[in-house]
């Protein structure tokens, strides 16, 4: 019994790893193991001898079992020590940045121009994107035969079978929002109406949905001079330059009379656009004095009140300010590559409040 014990305790102590230890356990205590075999032999012994041998075999079994467990723990500790010597964690490494969204350049520009016009006393008006043809066309002095009302320019909604009323349209400008504001608030009034508009147009410079901001100021003595100052002030603030030069070119819109298209002076040196200097002109918006019929449609007496109005494409001025080369950039989900070219539009606080990755 003592030699058995010495042999197994030595085998346990010499086992180099868990596999070796398991081999020793199976050899001694497994179903066909040596100690198990001796225990099975107890049945054939005389009762007295069985009692003595049983007790010492059980003690031996417990001792081998305890030695196996202790060696297993020791081997585990040694393996962990070995791993800790080679594997380590640098807790000073910077974390991996998570990609996060930023505010879309169009939304950003909407916020910027809203703030600029708010400083000049304009409030923001909003309205439906699906409009009746009266609000979108008639109220704006756009007669039924006007080309804008043709099928190829405007998205018309469907009417139910047998319903012969004129169909609603996807608004083609935000002007109907201003008609609604006039009817709701009366004069004097100063509002801007930013939002989505829809026209059946699709090429490199046009998309079927785009963004506009229109504005108007109605008061007792409003003139083109007020319009000119307001637009100049807006451009100075928006393009962040001290000096801007605007050129008013006579034009025609159904809803304004007189009407003017407005160009801004700029230079283009090696693809770098600079607003306010140079010998080039770029059209940025349309404007004019509100047509008396439009004032009347909005419930405002044209003999008592005058108003100026203007309209511009937000996508267009966003591209101009932030150097975005192509309208299609707005429709690709990931604009982060633009930062590579130094477009500051993307270096804004992200939606979660931190700095974007
Ligand atoms: C009311 C009365 C008059 C808004 C105006 C323009 C001229 C104009 C275009 C610019 C580029 C549309 O986005 S664009 O294609 N707009 O040229 N818009 S005056 O006049 C109004 C608006 C509302 C009640």
Q: What are the salient characteristics of this protein?
A:
metal-binding, 357 residues, 38% helix, disordered C terminus, single chain, eight-stranded mixed beta sheet, cytoplasm, 10 helices
Structural summary, described in words:
The protein has helices spanning 2-14, 18-29, 34-41, 47-86, 105-119, 133-136, 175-185, 224-239, 292-297, 314-322; strands spanning 123-124, 130-131, 169-170, 189-198, 209-219, 246-253, 256-269, 272-275, 280-290, 306-313. The protein has ten helices and ten strands. Strands 1, 4, 5, 6, 7, 8, 9 and 10 form an eight-stranded mixed beta sheet that branches. A two-stranded antiparallel sheet has the order 2-3. The longest helix is centred in the N-terminal third of the chain and has 40 residues, at 47-86. Helix 2 (18-29) runs antiparallel to helix 4 (47-86). It is 38% helix and 20% strand. By secondary structure, it is α+β, with helices and mostly antiparallel strands. The protein is elongated, with a radius of gyration of 42 Å. Residues 353-357 have low confidence and may be disordered. Ligand 2U9 binds next to helix 7, strand 5, strand 9 and strand 10.
The shape, in one word, is elongated
Which structural class do you get from the secondary structure elements? alpha+beta
Largest sheet features: 8 strands, mixed
Please bin the fraction of helical residues. Answer: 25-40%
- Pick out the low-confidence regions: 353-357
Rg over alpha carbons: 42 Å
Counting DSSP H or I runs of 4 or more residues, the number of helices is 10
* β-strand number: 10
Distance between the termini: 72 Å
Report strand %: 15-25%
Element-level helix/strand string: HHHHHEEHEHEEHEEEEHEH
Bound molecules: ligand 2U9
Q: Mean pLDDT, as a whole number? A: 88
Subunit structure: Tetramer of two alpha and two beta subunits.
EC number: 6.1.1.20
Cofactor: Mg(2+)
Keywords: Aminoacyl-tRNA synthetase, ATP-binding, Cytoplasm, Ligase, Magnesium, Metal-binding, Nucleotide-binding, Protein biosynthesis
């Amino acid at each position: 019994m003592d030699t058995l014990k010495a042999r197994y305790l030595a085998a346990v102590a010499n086992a180099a790893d868990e596999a070796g230890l398991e081999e020793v356990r199976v050899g001694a205590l497994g179903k066909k193991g040596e100690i198990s075999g001796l225990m099975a032999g107890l049945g054939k012994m005389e009762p007295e001898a069985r009692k003595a041998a049983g007790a010492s075999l059980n003690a031996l079994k417990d001792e081998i079992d305890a030695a196996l467990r202790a060696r297993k723990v020791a081997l585990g500790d040694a393996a962990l020590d070995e791993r800790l010597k080679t594997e380590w964690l640098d807790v000073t490494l910077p974390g991996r940045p998570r990609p996060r969204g930023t505010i879309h350049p169009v939304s950003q520009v909407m916020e910027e121009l809203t703030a600029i016009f708010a400083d000049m006393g304009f409030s923001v008006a909003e309205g439906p994107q699906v409009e009746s043809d009266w609000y979108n066309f008639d109220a704006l002095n756009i007669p039924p035969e006007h080309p804008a009302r043709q099928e190829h320019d405007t998205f018309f909604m469907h009417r139910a079978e047998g319903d012969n009323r004129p169909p609603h349209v996807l608004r083609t400008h935000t002007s109907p929002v201003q008609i609604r504001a006039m009817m709701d608030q009366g004069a004097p009034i100063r509002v801007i109406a930013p939002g989505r508009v829809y026209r059946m147009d699709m090429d490199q410079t046009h998309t079927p949905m785009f963004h506009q901001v229109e504005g108007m100021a109605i008061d007792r003595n409003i003139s083109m001079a007020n319009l000119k100052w307001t637009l100049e002030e807006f451009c100075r603030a928006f393009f962040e330059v001290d000096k801007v030069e605007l050129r008013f070119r006579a034009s025609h819109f159904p809803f304004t009379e007189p009407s003017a298209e407005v160009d801004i002076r700029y230079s283009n040196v090696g693809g770098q656009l600079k607003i306010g200097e140079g010998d080039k002109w770029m059209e940025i918006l349309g404007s004019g004095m509100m047509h008396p019929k439009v004032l009347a449609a909005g419930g405002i007496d044209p003999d008592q009140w005058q108003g100026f109005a203007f309209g511009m494409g937000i996508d267009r001025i966003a591209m101009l300010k932030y150097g975005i080369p192509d309208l299609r950039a707005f429709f690709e989900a990931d604009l982060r590559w633009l930062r590579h070219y130094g477009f500051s539009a993307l270096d804004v606080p992200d939606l979660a409040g931190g700095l974007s990755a």
